[in-house]
Automatic annotation (TrEMBL):
Residues annotated as domain FAD-binding PCMH-type: 35-216
Domain of life: Bacteria
Gene3D superfamilies, per the entry: 3.30.465.10, 3.30.70.2190, 3.30.70.2740, Uridine Diphospho-n-acetylenolpyruvylglucosamine Reductase, domain 2, Vanillyl-alcohol Oxidase, Chain A, domain 4
Protein name: FAD-binding oxidoreductase
InterPro entries reported in the protein's UniProt record: FAD-bd_oxidored_4_C, FAD-bd_PCMH, FAD-bd_PCMH-like_sf, FAD-bd_PCMH_sub1, FAD-bd_PCMH_sub2, FAD-linked_Oxase-like_C, FAD-oxidored/transferase_4, Oxid_FAD_bind_N
Pfam families for the chain: FAD-oxidase_C, FAD_binding_4
UniProt keyword annotation of Membrane present: no
Keyword entries, A-Z: FAD, Flavoprotein
Length: 471
């Protein structure tokens, strides 16, 4: 039966685009190397029509599919399981920019288009596409939408969901929903677009999307500030909203230990102001008037912040090169943490006002449970999203720490998130890594509705089974 299916898939996409032998690590192993699955085959269609035919063939054969973009996810949601019976459907060949509509301020792209390509295409046309994250050179827009990715400019522009106006989707039955209109108003029933965004490939396969564009700002300035506590970082955020308004496009917080790791593992990078302060904040001001106006706003903000004591020192990038260097430090934290050794990652969201208490309380609980544990705390404070990561004690065995203490650490953190009315996944998704935790922390009513939607749209459980929801 499998040989018959493989031959059908070869007939659809071409023999060279059905991979069933050789080294399939790039598709079978997740980016963090936390898990490795086994695929029946990796299929690489070149068009939406081919995707639809592949889905029909797999559904007829009773074989499940795992849609995959750049495979940069962090929750093991885009790799096959270990059975060797799943087909990985890679969208990487579907990477065209179909249209830039300047009057409508939209761009229509295929799901396999690299995020950086969207940014560069928009810039060449004189526009801004604001979704920005560390993996933008390799992640794809289909994956960004499937996980409702966030990034560094959510505070102004929102998650991937807020940036999307329309989708083209192949359903679990191999039908094509053509919803790429790009309308900003369409009140004709259920919002199917938002249903598929964030569903992690469990309800259908996103093959193309119409995304919003924005006017290019006249100036983008970056500042780096030392703050004496997380409470002061929250105060600074309030001042930034007050003084910069909609110009505040980025607000990142970084703990001292996270920055120490960057300085240790990437000594060529200059990390400012971190040695004498527990936290640093990275701010971005996008101004549609002029650079002079943007700089005046920043200087006034920092002057007030220094007077109020919520900032102890600050630097403003003098040019684009310096700004890129500051952002590069922030983006290097996950890489530096990986260099330090295996670690336990958390992607959580808490109401901004409650983050200081959450961090203080949870830090204390973890230190009490595991003396010497090190906190790599950083993230998008502007929208309440923290990457609250836990590193083994300095002299510890990192593999043993991950193997023996991960469940304990996760329980401490996620129980604290629940006490603070937060979410255990802000922008990375659930995948298979958080499947058990979602069952425990999500409302039974919400889980019941989610299962009803899954059953209605995918009764054969063809699409990415065992991810987000249990089969």
């Amino acid at each position: 039966m499998n040989n018959e299916l493989l031959q059908t898939l070869r007939n659809i996409t071409g023999t060279s685009h059905v991979l069933s032998e050789g080294d399939l690590t790039a598709w079978e192993q997740d980016w963090r190397k936390r898990a490795r699955g086994k695929a029946l085959a990796v299929v690489r269609p070149a068009s939406t029509a081919e995707v639809a035919e592949v889905v029909k063939a797999c559904a007829a054969a009773g074989v499940s599919l795992v849609a995959q973009g750049g495979n940069t996810g962090l929750v093991c949601g885009s790799i096959p399981d270990e059975t060797g019976k799943q087909v990985v459907l890679s969208l990487q060949r579907m990477n065209a920019v179909r249209e830039v509509d300047a009057a409508n301020l939209t761009m229509t792209v295929e799901a396999g288009c690299i995020l950086q390509t969207l940014q560069e295409t928009a810039e060449k046309a004189g526009f801004l596409f604001p979704l920005s994250l560390a993996a933008e050179g390799s992640c794809t827009i289909g994956g960004n939408l499937a996980t409702n990715a966030g990034g560094t400019q959510v505070v102004r522009y929102g998650n991937a969901r807020e940036l999307c106006l329309g989708l083209e989707v192949v359903t679990p039955q191999g039908e094509i929903w053509e919803g790429l209109s790009g309308l900003r108003k369409d009140n004709t029933g259920y919002d199917l677009r938002d249903l598929f965004i964030g569903s992690e490939g469990t309800l259908g396969i996103i093959t193309s999307a119409t995304m919003k564009l924005y006017p290019m700002p006249a100036a983008q300035l970056t500042a780096w500030a030392a703050v004496p506590s997380m409470e002061h970082a929250v105060t600074l955020l309030g001042l930034a909203h007050q003084h910069l308004g909609a110009g505040l496009t980025g607000f990142e917080v970084m703990g001292q230990f996270a920055l120490r790791l960057v300085a240790k593992h990437f000594p060529q990078q200059r990390v400012p102001l971190y040695l004498d302060t527990p936290f640093c904040v990275l701010l971005e001001n996008s101004d549609h008037e002029s650079e002079t106006h943007a700089r005046e706003q920043f200087e006034r903000l920092l002057e007030v912040a220094l007077e109020q004591g919520c900032v102890t020192d600050a630097v403003v990038a003098e040019n684009l090169t310096q700004a890129h260097q500051l952002w590069h430090v922030r983006e290097s934290i996950p890489l530096a943490q990986a260099e330090e050794g295996l670690n336990i990652k958390h992607d959580i969201s808490i109401s901004v006002s409650r983050i200081p208490d959450f961090v203080r309380e949870t830090d204390e609980l973890l230190q009490k449970a595991i003396p010497g544990v090190r906190m790599v705390n950083f993230g998008h404070l502007g929208d309440g999203n923290l990457h609250y990561n836990v590193q083994a004690p300095a002299a510890g065995d990192t593999k043993a720490f991950l193997r023996e203490r991960e469940e304990e650490v996760n329980t401490i953190v996620y129980d604290a998130v629940a006490r603070f009315d937060g979410s255990i996944s802000a922008e990375h998704g659930v995948g298979s890594l958080k499947l058990d935790k979602l069952e425990h922390h999500k409302s039974p009513v919400a889980l019941g509705m989610m299962r009803a939607i899954k059953q209605a749209l995918d009764p054969q459980n063809v699409m990415n089974p065992g991810r987000v929801l249990r089969a």
